[in-house]
Amino acid sequence: MRRVCFLLKVRQDRIEEYRERHAAVWPEMRAALSETGWHNYSLFLREDGLLVGYLETEDFEAAQAAMAATEVNARWQAGMAPFFEALDGAKPDEAMRPLTEVFHLA
Which molecular function GO terms apply here (predicted)? Predict the structure, then answer.
């Protein structure tokens, strides 16, 4: 299982709404994530908008592609894109760049 961590930046003026949206993630979105290989997926949000994402998956690229192929993900990403800084036209899930793991205590 591969551990993946990524960073994104939530707009300061949208932080509370971002939290509210994630307090009520659609059941079909949750199901799609699980079905496409996203395990132990967590998001952590700092007060300045720094978002840290973590997940475990067998194949991150395959999990991303499988999610991208779902209709629910297209709706979710379209609704979430305005919350983020510096996407340069990409959808939030396309802007995720895994960080390099430098240590893991097994």
Answer: L-rhamnose mutarotase activity
